[in-house]
Amino acid sequence: MRSVWAVARNTIAQALRMKLAAVVIILLLVILPLMSRIMVGDGKLQGKLQTFISYGMSLMTVLLSILTIAISTYTLSDDIKRKYIFLVVTKPIGRFQIILGKLMGIVTVDFVLLAVFSGIIYVLTLLMFHYTDAPPQEVAQAKNEFFTARLGLTDPEDEDKIEQRAREALDKLESANQMPENMTRMDVLNQLIGHEKIKARSVGIYGKKVWEFENVRVRDPNDTLFVRYKFSVTTQPPDDQVYGLWDIGDKRQIDLAVGEWKTPIVRIPRSSKTRTIAEIQAPAAVIADDGYVAVTFYNTNRNQTTVIPEDVELLFRAGSFTGNYIRAVLLIGFRLIFLAALGVSASTWLSFPVAFLLTGAVFCAGLINGFIIESFGSLGSTVSIFYSLTLRPLVWLLPKLDGPHNPTQFMVFGKLLTWQILVRAFGIMIGLKAVVLTMLGMWIFSNREIAKTVV
User: Fold this and answer.
1) CB within 8 A of 281, min separation 6: which ones?
2) What percent of the chain shows pLDDT beyond 90?
3) Average model confidence (pLDDT) for the chain?
4) Are 324 and 411 in contact (CB under 8 A)?
5) CB-based burial label for 60 (10 Å; 0-12, 13-18, 19+)
6) What is the DSSP-derived secondary structure letter of residue 160?
7) Calpha distance 418→329 (Å, rounded)
8) What whole-number distance in Å separates Cα of residue 224 and Cα of residue 144?
9) Could you tell me the domains of the chain?
10) 392-443 pLDDT per residue, tens
11) d(CA 429, CA 424)
12) Which SS3 state, helix, strand or coil, does residue 250 take?
């Protein structure tokens, strides 16, 4: 272990001597406080906080990722290029220990910088909130929707029924010989499924749409529920506003014509801009004793158009802002560990420029991982088979840095980043992928010929 730590200390010193490290540190020290002063968002306090933490965390993540890629691909390849490695391999230390030492040193630098700059972002966020002249309504909104960690529940659509209707429509097209010539059968089916989903979500004039949630348990019965949604319309209103009524509560009391309601049902009239995320609030008292709560939207004749509610989600408080922020920072740390393992592994068999480009390309691909996988799945059956047989193992090695693995989205919308998500990300990104890459780098470096004997 002493030998490994000796290599790690040397790697830390090597990293701190790099000009790029100084540039990253200075940039973050200057830009983060500046951003906290100039970010305006939508002009409201919550918008300012959301914009700052989004851009601040994203900037920190990108710069530390670039620094990690540079250090991890440079340190070993530079030692080999300058022949410093000869002084190390002649000592009683295994080559696998050299790889471990390099990786330990890089991860140490990463986590020290991550702790410092994430702490700066956290403090600046609190200062922006406490030293604001925003009206009390905006302060209360920021407390409820930003400085919190809310668990979100969705009412899953009946996928089986939607797909069944889409397949029936596909069969009719085939029997009538009306299939598009420039589209595969799978492409047509996917389009029909999308069309059926829109039909299932659409709410005509005087119509209604119900979302039902079960096992809703809040920590405090005096707490607040939040319903987040976004509207699309078939005909755009002149003022871009959708008007409607929302009922939140145990609708079973209405369906069963119960004379005296055991739990209240809250009716909320609300207008919202189209294609814009909005939220409404209701007291937690609307939750039935068995954890059931329904959300109903009524489309009034004031709209004169069909309304399509999208991304409807029931949110309730399940944690604190500080705890959520710590978990988000840990998720960023997992990303840096993966990049360090990939960079060190690549530098065992590639020169610095090539290893840097390879690791950088993998990092960029990880940012759009979901798009890449979805693209392969929509290229037809032949390409999908080729992808499954050849490219799928390589795509599996790509880090998942988007979607639920993007920590910024949890902080911006005050959504709970659960320990389950964190443990799953650690197990896949570190326990599997980083370990595989590290083992591969150890094997290559152990079998690599560093120098030739000349007689």
Assistant:
1) 144, 224, 225, 226, 227
2) 52
3) 87
4) yes
5) buried
6) H
7) 13
8) 8
9) 2-148+321-447 (no CATH), 150-201 (no CATH), 203-317 (2.60.120)
10) 666 777 888 887 789 999 999 889 999 999 999 999 999 999 999 999 999 9
11) 8
12) coil
Runs of H (alpha helix) within 82-182? 85-89, 95-130, 136-145, 159-175
Residues 231, 308 contacting (CB under 8 angstroms): yes
HSE-up (13 A, CA, CB side) for residue 92: 2
**282-292 pLDDT per residue, tens:** 999 999 989 99
Q: How far apart are the first and last CA of the chain?
A: 36
Could you tell me the pTM of the whole model? 0.83
Among 340, 345, 341, 353, smallest CA distance to 446 is for 345
The confidence score (pLDDT) of residue 22 equals 94
pLDDT above 60 (res 454): no
CA distances from residue 9 to 83, 244, 263 in whole angstroms, order as listed: 19, 63, 63
DSSP 365-433: HHHTHHHHHHHHHTS-HHHHHHIIIIIHHHHHHS---SGGG-HHHHHHTTB---HHHHHHHIIIIIIII
Quote the tokens at residue 283. 């007291």
Question: Is residue 255's pLDDT more than 70?
Answer: yes
Tokens of 335: 């990303």
- Contact indicator for 377, 384 with CB cutoff of 8 Å: yes
**How far is 251 from 425, CA to CA, in rounded Å?**
38
**Nearest in space to 151 (alpha carbons), one of 416, 408, 420, 414:** 416
- Give me the mean pLDDT over the 198-213 stretch: 90
Residue at token pair 């960690």 = 149
Exposure string (b/e) for 103-116, b if CB count within 10 Å is 16 or more?
bbbbbbbbbebbee
Q: Which residues contact 383 (CB under 8 A, 6 or more apart)?
A: 376
For residues 302-315, average pLDDT? 90
CA–CA separation, 355 and 344 (whole Å): 9
Q: For 265-278, what is the mean pLDDT? A: 91
Range 49-53 average pLDDT: 95
Picking from 153, 158, 174, the residue whose alpha carbon sits closest to that of residue 316 is 153
**Can you give the pLDDT at residue 425?**
92
